[in-house]
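Methods: holo model generation. Sequences were used as deposited, without trimming of termini or removal of tags, and paired with ligand SMILES retrieved from the corresponding compound records. Each pair was processed once, and we did not select among multiple samples. The sequence and pyridoxal-5'-phosphate SMILES for this entry were:
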Amino acid sequence: MTTPDFKKFNIDAYKPGKSKIKRFKKVIKLSANESALGMSSKAKKIISNKNLFLDKYPDGKSKNLRKAISQAYKCNSEKIICGAGSDEIILMICQLFLKPKDEVLIPEYSFLMYRIYSKIVGAKVVFAKEINFKVSVKELLKKVTKKTRIVFIANPNNPTGTYLTKKELLDLRKKLNKKILLVVDDAYAEYMKNEDYSSGLDLFKNKNNVFILRTFSKIFGLASLRVGWGHGSKKIVDALNVIKAPFNVNGIAQLAASESLKDKTFINKSVRHNLLYSRKIKKFLETYKIYSNSVSANFLLLNFEKSRYSAKFLYEKLKNKGIILRSTEEGYNIKNKLRLTIGSKKENLKFMSAIKQILKK
Ligand SMILES: Cc1ncc(COP(=O)(O)O)c(C=O)c1O
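and the model returned the structure below.
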């Protein structure tokens, strides 16, 4: 039988953080930067409600959710678009802005979907060097050409955990050609308590040449429901609505996301939990000469350069104990490092106790 021809892409498919180990029924998954505390009990309660009308299509414009977002984040609901994860919005932005041979500029160790979607629409991906695993405004600006259409920055950046300060981010926008769209991905913004940090949304709410990405997959703990949002000029949002799939965000996701925005107590608890354990685990690992980025989002990039043990060794030993970290070699091409997501109290204590057993000082 003949398979009709299809396009061939020179792309490595996205490999998510592993979630299973053959021998283990239940694992400790610290590989995908998901929420340590799950979702808000308010969100859980509303989606357990038996009176959901799942036989009907959801609101294609996510109107109530956009209203809830606009109230929580003090922005205009007409400048918001919701997506099946911020992931879908990255794709839509690429579809809207990029023609074949246009250039997309990204830092060398950035979130993998920027390069994947850019390539799918035929654009060329240009990488800018990072300095000590931190985005460099100077290196980015060096790589701008007449063909550059979009610059993607995750701030803080996944997988490095480093971030551009408020001053650096403002400087980047100022020095970048006005016609280039700067996409600031605020996926981890809610975790950030660093004094020199400001979210993309806070800095650029009124800028027509900046587009902001946000997600409910991280601090809100709704990763499986697939819901995220973007904020940009009304002109961009209107154009995105033309190419958007009609019912892209399912009804349960819209409800849970709206409800979780109301639960400030849960959000604050998650931030406190994250700070407490990021600091604790960072310090603990330093006693084994495993160093990491300064505390920022809900993960740490562990550096094994000074350690007697390699990242690979620890990855395998932890896996044998049912604990999964993210290897940064696959996809990101970062050698001898591991990305560790901050887990629940129980998971973090088990992780630290496993390290004690595996590593000798
Ligand atoms: C920087 C960044 N942006 C976007 C995403 C995707 O989020 P979503 O689940 O909303 O698609 C992730 C997920 O890991 C991420 O790290």
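Residues 264-286 form the longest helix (23 residues).
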